[in-house]
Amino acid sequence: MRIFDGDARRVATLFPGIGYTPDRPLLHYAGTILRDSGWAVRNVWWPELPDDGDSLNTMVSDIAWRELHAEVATKRLVIGKSLGSLAIPVAAEMALPGIWLTPLLHNPKVLDGLARMEAPTLLIGGTDDELWDGDAARATGHQVLEIDGANHSLEFAGDPQRSIGTLGAVAEAMVDFVERIAAAV
Question: For residue 74, which of 92, 95, 116, 119 sits 20 to 30 Å off, Cα-Cα?
């Protein structure tokens, strides 16, 4: 866990993907947006990951529960990328708002958590990501940003300029979401 200074009353916790660490573009800029808005940011780094899906689900859920219950800030926000979306059930239980980048929408625990989620939620994914299900995302009733043709990293193979443009659109959506959360009483 790495913690970056900011307002201790406003804390965001970032959960990475399997190979998508907090220093990769989507999470790096999410952290930058938050820090620039005065939030303290907590970056979670996974320990060695188990090989089987059940153990992986349990490990992420346990870490999410521990990390999110350890924080007592007045305003809290969760951001998860892919594997990090396995924290959704805990965020739903705690009524924490969240930004979920390429969430695992084929995972029943993730979908159940989204169905129970009452806090503001932003789901972001690409149509060329086999783990994204745009219909399922829209069916949750939460805010959705779907990027046509983007892969699981929200990038376009062989087209870095288009990938950078998408990163800008995602950053803009995150800025708007963070501003709404910060303004909420």
Answer: 116
